[in-house]
TrEMBL record:
One of its GO terms (cellular component) is encapsulin nanocompartment. Its main location: other. Gene3D superfamilies: 6.10.140.1960. It is found in: Encapsulin nanocompartment. GO terms for molecular function: metal ion binding; oxidoreductase activity. This is Rubrerythrin. It comes from the Archaea.
């Protein structure tokens, strides 16, 4: 299943537009990762599996590139990402 972009990007301007373009691009990359990995799991052909998993890995790199840009243009996103990391560390800390 491919995601639908939840906002009409054409109505945005400036920084809002740039942030939403990056978020939509990340959504697209995540969809691609899921698609390639699902296809790889469906086939019995090892060559196809190898290539599809390699492509999925490249898409993961694209997510990292796009996220890096998003964190540059959206300070709030960067702050909340750090908060999320800390919360996970606190919740999963072994006692």
């Amino acid at each position: 299943m491919l995601s639908k972009i939840p906002i009409d990007i054409g109505k945005l301007k400036g920084e809002d537009l740039n942030r939403e373009i990056l978020r939509a691009a990340i959504i697209g990359e995540l969809d691609a990762i899921n698609l390639y990995e699902e296809f790889a799991n469906m086939t019995d052909d090892q060559d196809i599996q190898i290539v599809l998993r390699d492509i999925a890995q490249e898409e993961k790199t694209h997510v990292g590139e796009l996220q890096t840009l998003l964190l540059r243009v959206d300070e709030e996103q960067a702050i909340e990402l750090e908060k999320g990391k800390k919360e996970v560390e606190e919740l999963t800390r072994k006692k």
